[in-house]
Amino acid sequence: MSTTLLLLADGRFPAGGHAHSGGLEAAVTAGRVRDLETLAAFLDGRLATAGLVAAAFAAAACRGGDTSTLDSEMDARTPSPALRKASRAQGRALLRAGRTLWTLSTVERELHHPVALGVVAAAAGLAPEEAALTAAYGTVTGPASAAVRLLGLDPYATHALVARLARDCDAVARRAARVATVDELPACSAPLLDIGAEAHASWEVRLFAS
Amino acid sequence: MHPEAHTHPDPHAPLTAGARALRIGIGGPVGSGKTALVAALCRTLAADLRLAVVTNDIYTTEDADFLLRNGVLPADRIRAVETGCCPHTAIRDDISANLDACEDLEHDLGPLDLVLVESGGDNLTATFSKGLVDHQIFVVDVAGGDKVPRKGGPGVTTADLLVVNKTDLAPLVGADLSVMARDAAARRGDLPTVFLSLVEDPAATPVADWVRGLVKG
């Protein structure tokens, strides 16, 4: 537990996250998320799938895993071209911020966001489980914040949902940090997030980048 | 001297002013005429400057489409940045997507003299980060009320150039330009303010001259 962890996990950290809804804008427009109850279900599903995968990759990269291997493995788990683009854009933004604050071990300009997060967390002196926790937490706070903006949901009630997910988030981070080899990296998929992201990318009018 | 510090230069260190295109931010409230001004500047400056535009409109491609439709710049010289419902965040608090867009334009098009970064329409408190742009223009219009300069706010008080736009509408909306000039001078000290009507001056001459002075300077 450290101030550095709070800094990296802070939604105000300038790493481009504010422009991404984590699939929520597509889900709202499709009518799948429309109130607190449906938002809670969306966040549950996202944490258990994209959240676990992101956390495991962040932990593996933080532990010093080969970034190019991890990046390819992340590509294999991201069938949607729109989501690949969004993940790399956020990875690039995070590497930009991380490079300004710490000394990174990589010279890559773009990596998938979870891999970049692990690299930046390691440079910041954080442990793999802390990198995993930052990743898991980000996968729920991004869409939660987007829901406040898109649906006008009560910000207290929305934060209460995130607070109720705290133990699940911790558990996902612990599980992710236990992954020891590349072969054990999880590959949980959320097909609706992939499909939604592709539809979203084709819209003429959208408020979030993804 | 610390020779080690120079042995491995960071390949992705941001280019500093001078080594890259000059970046000028254009901000202001919704409907004040930012996009029309950008289009006018492109038309006036494109002949003698290598330039590109980054737009931050909340409707993603709306502003870029306006510039394309008006034929002021080819499509590859315009990038649209999505701002996630927070236009001011994208130009001030978390500038990463805009920095990426500026850098991509220079990378893809080769050296440029000028990148205009147009903000999404926001309010009087929205200003650009110095980490994103070198200079900023704030655009207000007479139809927004002649009290706007007096209200102040960081855009009006600190922008390097204040443009009071649509002066041709002043008689129609009962705006007193002399009041706006007096209040702007009081708020801005020595910083310049120009009055503009793109109907009467489609080349946006005073603004284009100001921009040229910065690029050549």
TrEMBL record, chain A:
<dbReference type="InterPro" id="IPR038277">
    <property type="entry name" value="UreF_sf"/>
</dbReference>
<keyword id="KW-0143">Chaperone</keyword>
<comment type="similarity">
    <text>Belongs to the UreF family.</text>
</comment>
<dbReference type="InterPro" id="IPR002639">
    <property type="entry name" value="UreF"/>
</dbReference>
<comment type="subunit">
    <text>UreD, UreF and UreG form a complex that acts as a GTP-hydrolysis-dependent molecular chaperone, activating the urease apoprotein by helping to assemble the nickel containing metallocenter of UreC. The UreE protein probably delivers the nickel.</text>
</comment>
<keyword id="KW-0963">Cytoplasm</keyword>
<dbReference type="Pfam" id="PF01730">
    <property type="entry name" value="UreF"/>
</dbReference>
<protein>
    <recommendedName>
        <fullName>Urease accessory protein UreF</fullName>
    </recommendedName>
</protein>
<comment type="function">
    <text>Required for maturation of urease via the functional incorporation of the urease nickel metallocenter.</text>
</comment>
<keyword id="KW-0996">Nickel insertion</keyword>
TrEMBL record, chain B:
<dbReference type="Pfam" id="PF02492">
    <property type="entry name" value="cobW"/>
</dbReference>
<keyword id="KW-0963">Cytoplasm</keyword>
<comment type="similarity">
    <text>Belongs to the SIMIBI class G3E GTPase family. UreG subfamily.</text>
</comment>
<feature type="domain" description="CobW/HypB/UreG nucleotide-binding">
    <location>
        <begin position="24"/>
        <end position="192"/>
    </location>
</feature>
<comment type="subunit">
    <text>Homodimer. UreD, UreF and UreG form a complex that acts as a GTP-hydrolysis-dependent molecular chaperone, activating the urease apoprotein by helping to assemble the nickel containing metallocenter of UreC. The UreE protein probably delivers the nickel.</text>
</comment>
<dbReference type="InterPro" id="IPR004400">
    <property type="entry name" value="UreG"/>
</dbReference>
<keyword id="KW-0547">Nucleotide-binding</keyword>
<protein>
    <recommendedName>
        <fullName>Urease accessory protein UreG</fullName>
    </recommendedName>
</protein>
<keyword id="KW-0996">Nickel insertion</keyword>
<keyword id="KW-0143">Chaperone</keyword>
<keyword id="KW-0342">GTP-binding</keyword>
<dbReference type="InterPro" id="IPR003495">
    <property type="entry name" value="CobW/HypB/UreG_nucleotide-bd"/>
</dbReference>
<dbReference type="InterPro" id="IPR027417">
    <property type="entry name" value="P-loop_NTPase"/>
</dbReference>
<feature type="binding site">
    <location>
        <begin position="28"/>
        <end position="35"/>
    </location>
    <ligand>
        <name>GTP</name>
    </ligand>
</feature>
<comment type="function">
    <text>Facilitates the functional incorporation of the urease nickel metallocenter. This process requires GTP hydrolysis, probably effectuated by UreG.</text>
</comment>
